[in-house]
Specification:
By secondary structure, the chain is mostly beta strands. It is built from no helices and 17 strands. The chain is globular, with a radius of gyration of 16 Å. The protein starts with 5 loop residues before the first strand and ends with a strand.
Amino acid sequence: GIWDGVEVWGDRTLPQNNSVQGVYLLYNTTIVNAQMGIFFDKRPLINAKIQPLSGGIVRANNSTFINNYLAVKMRSYPDFTSISYFKNCTFEYSSSSPYEYISGPKMEFINLFDYHGLKIQGCHFINTTPNDFAIQDRGWGIKSTDASYIVDELCINCQQFPPITQPTISENLS
């Protein structure tokens, strides 16, 4: 079924290190059918005002995000550079998603707002059933506003020359 996803809390007034920020480690992990797979803040309660809790850290390796309405949402962390990363991760959307009924764009894999320094290396962003959707509804790999991030290949074997690398790939998205 559908679930809310994981919250990673932090303090947007402090730099990124393991002792003052929430840290979420993913190794060979799968997150499926979440409203927001990983949310870097606290979801507000109805009519409640809360202090922003952005600033958390994620280190994701060899992990998969499948049919999440929004796989990762990183909110405002303007004064510091993030040390978060996604390496060799797959972000996938298919017609078996529980979110098919929602009108408009069907998904975003990574959404960044006023966030800087995220590293995305050797990841795969894919809509496996693009013909089931209008071109404008196939979703986005990365959607950002006032953000900076690095999308690069991942070095699989750096001891070899030339090194063996894995590119970051986007397929069948809007």
